[in-house]
Amino acid sequence: MSDPIRVLVTGAAGQIAYSLLYGIAKGDVFGKDQPIILILLDIPPMLPVLDGVVMELQDCALPLLKEVIPTDKVEVAFKDLDAAILVGSMPRKEGMERKDLLKANVAIFKSQGAALDKYAKKTVKVLVVGNPANTNCLIAAKSAPSIPKENFSCLTRLDHNRASSQVAMRCGVSANSVKNVIIWGNHSSTQYPDVHHCLVNVGGKEVPAFDAVKDDNWLKGDFISAVQQRGAAVIKARKLSSAMSAAKAICDHMRDIWTGTSEGRFVSMGVYSTGNPYGVPDDLIYSFPVEIKDKSWKIVDGLTINDFSRAKMDATAAELVEERDTAISFLSV
Ligand SMILES: NC(=O)c1ccc[n+]([C@@H]2O[C@H](COP(=O)([O-])OP(=O)(O)OC[C@H]3O[C@@H](n4cnc5c(N)ncnc54)[C@H](O)[C@@H]3O)[C@@H](O)[C@H]2O)c1
Ligand SMILES: *[C@@H]1O[C@H](CO)[C@@H](O)[C@H](O)[C@H]1NC(C)=O
Ligand SMILES: CC(=O)N[C@H]1CO[C@H](CO)[C@@H](O)[C@@H]1O
């Protein structure tokens, strides 16, 4: 067995973490032979709840889990990290302006970025989940200048999994028979779920999604809005936001960073754009199709983009540019 790795989950007393921690602690993410020290950060009023989560993790009697450290202090939480999953953020409260919400989140991710810079390993892999995930991730990366920007990513895998599953259900195949859907842009209702490069395995043969689904109107209309609005639909039904599926997507995302994507398959991740092949503005965390090998991701190159896709990719980029500029104006104050 190798030495334990140190993995931080923030927002650890919350509902996503409640599903996520078990997956990590039993080896779904970093491998079945990788011992883990789990560090759980939340805010001071949540410490009693966190104690309950620690008790349950102990009661799971998991062989890979070497230690659990609950804390409300960043200097404890970010020390010597190998991986950081930043789930906690400021939620929208009744009557709160969008700007004030963004300002509160900039403050959180600025201080957590600075803590990564100061205390974590320089090779730390950082995944931002707390919304607005793309911009929070950008702020954290900018606040940690000694850690490569490539080591920061934000979660759009839930949207990716939702899109794959919609296509799979429509074709009557299992979810793993669908590959290479793409989520472009922001994790919001302007995201663009793109199936122009998606393949569906139908009876052992891989065919383009448009041929497998045989309903272009659905793929260009209701499919896109269903994926864009899925989070809202879950909230309406459950009276709570997606948690089990978000936790599963976080596991998928981090596992792919750790162990790589399989040959011919790509996944969607919000990553730092700089000189990307698709003309997306630089200096954004934007969701792209990526392949991962040796713990490094690469944006999939050479995909053809038609006018329909172009317009949607540009719209979601414009939203992120605006949000970035507002967020950066808060950084200096
Ligand atoms: N990117 C995605 O695909 C995706 C999907 C689902 C949810 N989300 C987002 O994930 C976040 C968490 O969702 P949830 O359902 O677990 O929420 P939740 O409210 O159940 O839990 C959030 C936890 O974060 C904690 N927290 C707040 N500020 C913190 C800070 N500064 N440091 C540490 N902890 C802090 C809270 O105390 C709370 O325990 C939300 O922002 C949600 O919008 C993102
Ligand atoms: C981008 O997506 C996030 C997450 O859903 C959302 O909170 C934010 O408002 C979006 N940005 C803009 C500018 O709409
Ligand atoms: C995922 C990723 O890009 N990881 C990189 C993090 O930074 C180290 C250097 O500190 C690189 O070697 C990794 O490839």
TrEMBL record:
Substrate binds at residues 92, 98, 131, 162. Its EC number is 1.1.1.37. Pfam families: Ldh_1_C, Ldh_1_N. Gene3D superfamilies: Lactate dehydrogenase/glycoside hydrolase, family 4, C-terminal, NAD(P)-binding Rossmann-like Domain. Residues 156-330 form the Lactate/malate dehydrogenase C-terminal domain. One of its GO terms (biological process) is malate metabolic process. InterPro entries: L-lactate/malate_DH, Lactate/malate_DH_C, Lactate/malate_DH_N, Lactate_DH/Glyco_Ohase_4_C, Malate_DH_AS, Malate_DH_NAD-dep_euk, Malate_DH_type2, NAD(P)-bd_dom_sf. It catalyses: (S)-2-hydroxyglutarate + NAD(+) = 2-oxoglutarate + NADH + H(+); (S)-malate + NAD(+) = oxaloacetate + NADH + H(+). NAD(+) binds at residues 42, 105, 129-131. Residues 6-152 form the Lactate/malate dehydrogenase N-terminal domain. Signal peptide: none annotated. The active site is at residue 187. Keywords: NAD, Oxidoreductase, Tricarboxylic acid cycle. GO terms for molecular function: L-malate dehydrogenase (NAD+) activity. HAMAP family: Malate_dehydrog_2. Belongs to the LDH/MDH superfamily. MDH type 2 family. NCBIfam families: MalateDH-SF1, MDH_euk_cyt, PRK05442.1. PANTHER family: MALATE DEHYDROGENASE. Catalyzes the reduction of aromatic alpha-keto acids in the presence of NADH. Plays essential roles in the malate-aspartate shuttle and the tricarboxylic acid cycle, important in mitochondrial NADH supply for oxidative phosphorylation. Catalyzes the reduction of 2-oxoglutarate to 2-hydroxyglutarate, leading to elevated reactive oxygen species (ROS). This is Malate dehydrogenase. It comes from Silurus meridionalis.
